[in-house]
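Q: what sequence does this backbone want?
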């Protein structure tokens, strides 16, 4: 099998770093500016993020994830996205005096690891199948 048809099992440093930086920037653009909770008349609070902000974050991050996975650099895509989201959550939430931000950060790390692994694998398989069907 040619090297282009094989998925790299080890992350490449440059694509991983680039994707982590893109992810940090995307978090800042989509979520980082919104730090206030919304108070409702019944006394409950929600937020600080709205659903559209999280959806925008996910949709924007699909593009660089697709780019790495379609080039069979699944490990770089998964690691870069996971590192970026985990670092962004830690930085954004670390002012929480209760210490519960650490639990949230670990949940972001595990959730993003699982989700990016699944999505990247599907993309890599689909692009590999599409490449084989055109040959």
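A:
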């Amino acid at each position: 099998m040619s090297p282009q048809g094989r998925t790299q099992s080890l992350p490449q440093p440059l694509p991983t770093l680039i994707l982590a930086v893109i992810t940090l920037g995307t978090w800042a653009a989509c979520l980082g500016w919104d730090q206030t909770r919304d108070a409702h008349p019944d006394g409950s609070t929600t937020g600080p993020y709205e659903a559209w902000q999280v959806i925008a974050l996910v949709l924007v991050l699909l593009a660089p994830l697709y780019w790495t996975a379609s080039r069979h650099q699944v490990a770089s895509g998964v690691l870069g996205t996971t590192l970026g989201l985990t670092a962004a959550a830690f930085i954004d939430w670390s002012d929480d005096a209760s210490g519960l931000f650490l639990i949230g950060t670990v949940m972001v790390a595990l959730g993003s690891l699982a989700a990016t692994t699944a999505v990247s694998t599907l993309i890599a398989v689909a692009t590999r199948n599409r490449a084989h069907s055109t040959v």
